[in-house]
């Protein structure tokens, strides 16, 4: 069993303190910023389940995010379905899309960079399709009319939106914990470490990977729903563009792929870094992105195990370190 | 350090403290007087895509807004508010709708009375929806999608024309030009970028051109970016259209126009609606031969107005190309200043009221008195421009024209 080090306690404590501080701060700007960061966090948690635990590096998680957002939008705007029901159906749709992409890719044994390219291609195909058909709003996208109310899944009070998104992040993390502690999670990690060996031990690798993809799809779809209900607008470049796919994987990689807190720590840190850089060089737009990029490179260079991996090494007790070494052996 | 030095330092420090205390005291007494004498500052938001793929348009628009604010402040500020000065609060939409929406929080928190933005419909749709929560007015500089004004949002004010108005005006003008030239143009080819802007325009033109007696013989889409237009130009050479309608962004437009010249493809007209480079002086300057006689129907200012001429000089002094982004952003700030003048208040609700009832006609744009219906300025109109020599001339409507339209294009050999 792993012991949580002092560094980890401090890191998670700081994250929780920041998230609680939002309730006390009257700043709408920070509230809006954190809501946005948390929506991306949900998608990062989805990616981490497949990429971090399962070792299947997807470059097209926007396909799942976009499907969640588009299906909710189409159902409620074009077909008049109740937004809550539409949200549920959107999650199902994203799960099915993920299952389809996963089944098709894994059926033909695609791994590593080939799997990454195929997922990227799926997202691109969906982007072009979404910008071509009238029922997806074509190039104009779909705009959800602003009608605040619980029944409409829209909240005039932004703190309620924040709470909802925060709960979604917590649920996504709990799902990850449940997966990690389950037999299914063990199979998934085994596949990540050595797929051939896992197969030799009798693990149905195809089934495990497709299931992981579907679970990831459900969470990614939920992120799309949260995005749509927050910003009330979706178009093809946002939904299926590469920006979302990159954001989905950056957080876990920076935070610590294959850890429970990695995507949360990574995504929030990256967004805070971006915002900090913006404030630091507010007079020169674009310079913040340069600074952001440089800092990102520094993190990647000096923290190969992500921020969580770095924190794990701080204040580690002798016993914990010994256990860890034993685990490693 | 010598003893004397130390002494003099102590003395001067004491003196400094004394002076500081005296100043603080005097400041306390005099502060109300100073506050009364100094007019308050009114914050106006400028939400533009300063980075990302729309960065060029965004930075130009930001400059235009700042030029307007400087001009208004230099002319005495908002007189009904005791000469209050305008102050720009700039936010970067990063060419992303979610960032644009999030930036509205920053603007609202900074206390802006209204804001202008965002050079693209997708950005404006998201930002205005976010601004509705704060009852904060957004004056659209460019937001041609009709969805912008179809949502019933009370805080939306699109000052410039939408795509329907631009298309109908462009086709009416084209019909008139063609009739005057003896209907020489009978066929057209559309070359469009396959994104939202180009594909929607191509669809609209395919429906509407036959109604004015022009048959579409080719409709060719291409992605953005696209760097080689040779095949497209060769296809056009085979189709032999009388008129070519490019509907794409600045780089592709420029490369396509160069391709037409390189392949010596002669057309009777090159006609654009909201064309990417057709009203851009950079295109005229850098690819002068290819740019000749290209006609566009787009946002443009009234070049005859003294304020327009002053703006052109300011832009030139700042070494900026005079593009429509600068013009529309400038005009939007003028509109906000006029509304502030009438409402004499920093209150957001009153700003929305003042904009709703605006009949302003003093902007640099060739518009009549403003009339907002569901947030759409019914008085807004695009104009036809044509590249002639080193200049972009306004050729339609006649009352604003600086040159006669040349239609069809004379044979260039």
TrEMBL record, chain A:
InterPro entries: ABC_transp_permease, LivM-like
Any one GO MF annotation of this record: branched-chain amino acid transmembrane transporter activity
Recorded GO CC terms: plasma membrane
UniProt KW keywords: Cell membrane, Membrane, Transmembrane, Transmembrane helix
Membrane topology: Multi-pass membrane protein
Localization, UniProt: Cell membrane
A UniProt-annotated Pfam family: BPD_transp_2
Segments traversing the membrane: 9-25, 31-50, 62-79, 85-106, 113-139, 159-179, 210-229, 249-273, 285-303
Descriptive protein name: Branched-chain amino acid ABC transporter permease
Source organism per UniProt: Microvirga brassicacearum
From TrEMBL, chain B:
Protein name, per record: ABC transporter substrate-binding protein
Organism domain of life: Bacteria
KW Magnesium (keyword) present: no
Residue ranges occupied by any Leucine-binding protein domain in the UniProt entry: 41-383
Keywords: Amino-acid transport, Signal, Transport
Any single biological process term in GO: amino acid transport
Family according to the record: Belongs to the leucine-binding protein family.
UniProt-listed Pfam families: Peripla_BP_6
SUPFAM superfamilies, alphabetized: Periplasmic binding protein-like I
Organism of derivation: Microvirga brassicacearum
Lineage, broadest ranks: Bacteria, Pseudomonadati, Pseudomonadota, Alphaproteobacteria, Hyphomicrobiales
């Amino acid at each position: 069993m792993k012991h949580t080090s002092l560094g980890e306690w401090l890191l998670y404590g700081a994250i929780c303190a920041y998230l609680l501080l939002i309730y006390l701060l009257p700043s709408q700007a920070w509230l809006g910023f954190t809501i946005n960061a948390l929506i991306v966090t949900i998608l990062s948690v989805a990616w981490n389940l497949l990429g971090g635990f399962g070792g299947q590096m997807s470059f097209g998680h926007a396909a799942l995010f976009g499907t969640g957002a588009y299906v909710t939008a189409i159902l409620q705007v074009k077909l008049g379905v109740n937004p809550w029901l539409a949200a549920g159906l959107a999650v199902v749709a994203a799960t099915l899309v993920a299952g389809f992409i996963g089944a098709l890719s894994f059926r033909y044994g695609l791994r590593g960079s080939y799997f990454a390219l195929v997922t990227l291609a799926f997202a691109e195909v969906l982007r072009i399709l979404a910008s071509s058909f009238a029922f997806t709003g074509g190039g104009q996208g779909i705009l959800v009319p602003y009608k605040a109310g619980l029944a409409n899944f829209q909240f005039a009070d932004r703190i309620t939106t924040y709470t909802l998104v925060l709960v979604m992040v917590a649920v996504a993390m709990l799902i990850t914990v449940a997966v990690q502690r389950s037999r299914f999670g063990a199979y998934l990690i085994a596949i990540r470490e050595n797929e051939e060996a896992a197969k030799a031990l009798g693990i149905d690798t195809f089934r495990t990977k497709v299931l992981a993809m579907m679970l990831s799809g459900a969470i990614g779809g939920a992120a799309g729903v949260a995005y749509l209900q927050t910003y009330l607008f979706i178009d093809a470049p946002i939904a299926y563009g590469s920006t979302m796919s990159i954001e989905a994987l950056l957080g876990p990689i920076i935070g610590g792929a294959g850890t429970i807190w990695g995507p949360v720590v990574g995504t929030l840190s990256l967004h805070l870094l971006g915002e900090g850089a913006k404030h630091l060089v507010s007079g020169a737009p674009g310079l913040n992105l340069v600074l952001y990029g440089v800092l990102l490179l520094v993190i990647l260079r000096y923290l190969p195990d992500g921020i969580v991996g770095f924190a794990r090494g701080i204040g580690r007790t002798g016993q914990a370190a010994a256990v860890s070494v034993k685990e490693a052996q | 350090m010598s003893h004397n030095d130390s002494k003099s330092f102590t003395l001067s420090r004491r003196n400094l403290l004394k002076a500081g205390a005296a100043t603080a005291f005097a400041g306390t007494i005099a502060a109300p007087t100073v506050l009364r004498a100094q007019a308050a500052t009114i914050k106006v938001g400028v939400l533009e895509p300063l980075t990302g793929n729309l960065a060029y348009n965004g930075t130009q628009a930001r400059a235009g807004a700042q030029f307007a604010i400087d001009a208004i402040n230099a002319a005495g500020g908002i007189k009904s508010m005791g000469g209050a000065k305008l102050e720009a609060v700039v936010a970067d939409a990063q060419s992303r709708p979610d960032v644009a929406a999030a930036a509205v929080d920053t603007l609202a928190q900074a206390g802006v009375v209204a804001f202008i933005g965002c050079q693209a419909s997708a950005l404006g749709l998201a930002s205005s929806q976010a601004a509705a929560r704060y009852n904060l007015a957004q004056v659209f500089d460019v937001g041609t999608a009709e969805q912008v004004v179809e949502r019933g949002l009370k805080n939306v004010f699109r000052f410039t024309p939408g795509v329907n108005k631009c298309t109908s005006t462009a086709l009416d003008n084209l019909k008139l030009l063609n009739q005057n030239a003896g209907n020489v143009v009978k066929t057209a080819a559309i070359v469009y970028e396959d994104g939202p802007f180009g594909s929607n325009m191509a669809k609209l033109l395919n429906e509407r051109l036959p109604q004015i007696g022009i048959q579409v013989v080719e409709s060719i889409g291409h992605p953005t970016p696209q760097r080689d237009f040779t095949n497209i130009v060769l296809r056009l050479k085979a189709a032999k259209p009388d008129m070519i309608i490019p509907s794409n962004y600045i780089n592709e437009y420029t490369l396509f126009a160069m391709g037409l010249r390189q392949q010596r493809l002669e057309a009777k007209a090159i006609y654009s609606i909201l064309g990417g480079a057709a009203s851009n002086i950079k295109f005229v300057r850098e690819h002068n031969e290819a740019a000749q006689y290209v006609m566009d129907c787009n946002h443009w200012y009234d070049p005859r107005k003294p304020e327009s001429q002053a703006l052109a000089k300011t832009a030139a002094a700042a070494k900026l190309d005079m593009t429509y982004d600068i013009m529309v952003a400038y005009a939007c700030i003028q509109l906000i200043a006029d509304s502030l003048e009438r409402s004499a208040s920093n209150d957001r609700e009153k700003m929305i009221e003042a904009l709703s009832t605006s009949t302003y006609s003093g902007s640099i744009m060739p518009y009549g008195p403003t009339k907002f219906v569901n947030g759409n300025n019914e008085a807004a109109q695009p104009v036809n421009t044509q590249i002639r020599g080193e200049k972009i001339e306004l050729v339609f409507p006649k009352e604003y024209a600086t040159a006669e339209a040349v239609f069809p294009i004379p044979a260039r050999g």
